[in-house]
Design goal:
- This protein is of the alpha+beta class.
- It folds into 3 domains: 242 residues, Rossmann fold (3-Layer(aba) Sandwich); 99 residues, P-loop containing nucleotide triphosphate hydrolases (Rossmann fold), CATH 3.40.50; 125 residues, Alpha-Beta Plaits (2-Layer Sandwich), CATH 3.30.70.3280.
- The chain has 14 helices and 31 strands.
- The strands form 6 sheets. The chain has an 8-stranded antiparallel sheet with strand order 18-17-23-14-15-22-19-20. It has an 8-stranded antiparallel sheet with strand order 27-24-26-25-29-30-28-31.
- Strand 9 and strand 10 form a beta hairpin.
- It is globular, with a radius of gyration of 24 Å.
- The chain binds guanosine-5'-diphosphate.
- Guanosine-5'-diphosphate binds next to helix 2.
């Protein structure tokens, strides 16, 4: 096997998706401990930054310059090269959170057993689903009394619409928790409290009577046998195509079932996959270097106008100092300042392989979705999709004399992908659409810092956007409750107040086809 193939095969690039408080930080920390990146849990900076209010975040960004410490975490584990991409939640939830999912080969979905499938998980799941990537589920907090395991599986199947396959089965929960029956690895992992696991192979289980004859165990075994008969069969093909999710039960905080989960995950998860271009698909093993930019992080410090672009390597080998071309502009650029992310530090990277994420210095030449390639044969990857914003504001310049800078700032920030711009039908007012509040705060901040324009927001609030298939629609059908705007391609988008007004409109106008861009199956 040549070196490139070997490097590709040992890479696992994934994101962890969850609703806030399900245990993402806690689980990530355990993985970093396995990878010897940190010595003990509770030290990841990302933990706190994920929970800061936006204003605090700004202060931190200003002090630290570009903050990327928790954006990508790379480490070695069992001969594998692991790249974990952070998907910020809470107040940091933004389009970047979604875009990050375009750069991974698989995802880990954490579900809190006491809560089941929650709203943010659904949103992130849908984006993974659109890409058909493998999704592995970790049902967390088994040390607490939660929903019944069968009910949780049913919820995953019904709410998310994906087949589930329990890789292990919990025996009891909360105070009655005895451990998990790991059917994939054929061991019983016995719960012995925090940080301690005892592994008993199935063949020896009958000898451990305090387990095998325990009423909780007998009960769980009944459930499990039901599942064996009526449940889905395990299919690695389905898993690899995102049609079946392997489900693991455990407790992140107690470090219970986490390592077994991780080992099984890295065995089964996809290595870096070919990537679709407008013309064909590019194999990671191709000698030609190629990659695409999925995120641009502006420096919040006005004294340093530089930005950092996040590039996913798709094929070939990245070498520092190499000259590449940007597909969109056909311009050549030498990549001298490149960084890799090692959990808490940024380091200059000399080489990177398919599946790796590197940060490259952006003097203002990149846009989100740009393809970079070496050699003469142009590579242009498929566009990164537009994600439906949820939060809308009307925006104007505080000082009308600043119209020109205002226009320039908006144009550039929209092009960069920092925010989405719409124009109100009829009035042509500028309307910004964001996935989270953070995007609006960053926009305001950058307009002031980079273009010297103070902006004024007039809240429109959260809306449900639906694109209209037919552009010759009767515009009189729309009013303030279902506002009509145009996106930057000039296509009509109706912004509905809520589910009710959306349904009401659809009932009244059954002929108008409304498109939900987050529901492409
Ligand atoms: P995040 O918001 O998804 O990153 O969640 P955190 O990792 O910060 O966890 C949220 C809360 O749940 C914290 O108070 C954790 O200590 C707690 N937590 C995480 N994992 C477990 C677990 O396995 N059991 C219990 N009981 N609590 C947990």
């Amino acid at each position: 096997m040549n070196n490139l193939t070997n490097e590709i095969d040992r890479r696992r690039t994934f994101a962890i998706i969850s609703h806030p408080d399900a245990g993402k930080t806690t689980l990530t920390e355990k993985l970093l401990v396995f990878g010897n990146v940190i010595r003990s849990a509770g030290t990841v900076k990302g933990k706190k930054s994920g929970k800061f209010a936006t204003s605090d975040w700004m202060e931190i960004e200003k002090k630290r310059g570009i903050s990327v410490t928790s954006s990508v975490m790379s480490f070695e584990y069992m001969d594998r090269h692991i790249n974990i991409l952070d998907t910020p939640g809470h107040e940091d939830f933004s389009e970047d959170t979604y875009r990050t999912l375009t750069a991974v080969d698989s995802a880990v979905m954490i579900i809190d057993c006491t809560k089941g499938v929650e709203p943010q998980t659904i949103k992130l799941f849908k984006v993974c689903r659109m890409r058909g990537i493998p999704i592995f589920t970790f049902i967390n907090k088994l040390d607490r009394e939660g929903k019944e395991p069968l009910e949780l599986l049913e919820e995953i199947e019904e709410v998310l619409g994906i087949e589930s396959y329990a890789m292990n089965w919990p025996v009891g929960m909360g105070k009655r928790f005895l451990g998990v029956y790991d059917r994939y690895n054929e061991v019983f992992i016995r719960w012995q409290g925090k940080e301690e696991e005892q592994h008993i192979p199935f063949s020896e289980l009958d000898d451990v009577k305090e387990i095998s004859e325990h009423p909780t165990f007998v009960q769980a075994k009944d459930d499990f046998e039901l599942l064996e008969e009526a449940g889905n069969d395990f299919s690695i093909e389905k898993v690899k195509n995102g049609l079946q999710t392997p489900v693991f039960f455990g407790s992140a905080i107690a470090n219970f079932g986490v390592e077994m989960f991780f080992r099984t995950f890295i065995d089964l998860a996809n290595e870096p996959q070919p990537r679709q271009t407008v013309a064909e698909s590019v194999k990671p093993q191709s000698e030609q270097f190629s990659g695409f930019i999925f995120k641009i992080q502006a420096n919040m410090n006005p004294a340093h106008r530089d930005r950092l672009a996040f590039l996913r390597v798709c094929s070939g080998v990245f070498e520092r100092g190499m000259t590449v071309k940007v597909s969109r502009t056909d311009k050549a650029i030498k990549l001298t300042q490149s960084q890799q992310f090692l959990a808490s530090d940024r380091e200059t990277v000399e080489h990177a392989y398919p599946g790796d994420i590197i940060g490259i210095y952006d003097p203002g030449v990149y846009q989100i979705g740009d393809s970079l390639y070496s050699g003469n044969q142009q590579v242009e990857f498929d566009e990164i999709p537009t994600f439906a914003p949820e939060l809308f504001v009307k925006v104007t310049a505080k000082n009308v004399m600043k119209g020109k800078q205002f226009g320039k700032g908006i144009t550039q920030l929209v092009q960069e992908g920092a925010i989405q711009l719409y124009r109100q039908y009829g009035t042509d007012d500028y309307i910004l659409g964001a996935v989270g509040q953070l995007q609006l705060d960053v926009f305001e901040y950058r307009m002031k810092g980079e273009y010297n324009v103070e902006v004024v927001y007039q809240m429109i609030g959260s809306k449900i956007p639906r694109w209209l298939e037919d552009q010759k629609v009767d515009t009189n059908l729309f009013d303030s409750r279902n506002m009509l705007v145009k996106d930057r391609n000039g296509d009509y988008v109706a912004l509905f107040d809520n589910d009710f007004s959306l349904r009401w409109f659809q009932d009244k106008n059954p002929k108008i086809k409304l498109i939900d861009i987050m529901a492409q199956d």
